[in-house]
Design brief:
With about 120 residues, the protein is an alpha+beta fold. The chain has helices spanning about 45-55, 55-60, 70-100, 105-115, and strands at about 5-10, 20-25, 30-35. Helix 3 (about 70-100) packs antiparallel against helix 4.
């Protein structure tokens, strides 16, 4: 069996070790398959597909969408929350210096911003 092409490569893991891909073969046409590039004990045709994926990794990697990590997903949330807290810190300073209360909506949003921040 000769592998002629691939399509619809999609990573199923953060480290790109598990890839769903359709392989075009001379014998069977298009075959959907999932390949674990870290597993050495697979069917002979899967080993051949894996070797083809490894040999053509640079070509394939350019088309496999990146699966963001939890940290990457959380980063913009953390940034927005920290920016909001920074922009409203003066309310806390004013309360401390003068005793003027923080408006309820600002206090509520600040509490939500602190809860949204996840340290990774």
């Amino acid at each position: 069996m000769e592998i002629l092409n691939y399509r619809n490569a999609e990573s199923q893991s953060v480290d790109n070790s598990l890839i769903d891909v359709e392989i075009l073969t001379d014998k069977f046409g298009w075959i959907p398959t999932t390949v674990n590039v870290l597993d050495d004990e697979q069917e002979p045709h899967t080993i051949q597909i894996k070797q083809w994926l490894v040999d053509n990794f640079d070509l394939i990697a350019a088309h496999v969408p990146h699966v963001p990590t939890q940290e990457e997903l959380q980063a913009p949330i953390n940034q927005d929350a920290l920016e909001y807290l920074k922009s409203t810190d003066w309310y806390v300073t004013r309360r401390s210096d003068t005793g003027v209360a923080i408006p309820v909506d600002i206090d509520t949003y600040r509490a939500a911003a602190r809860e949204a921040i996840v340290q990774g």
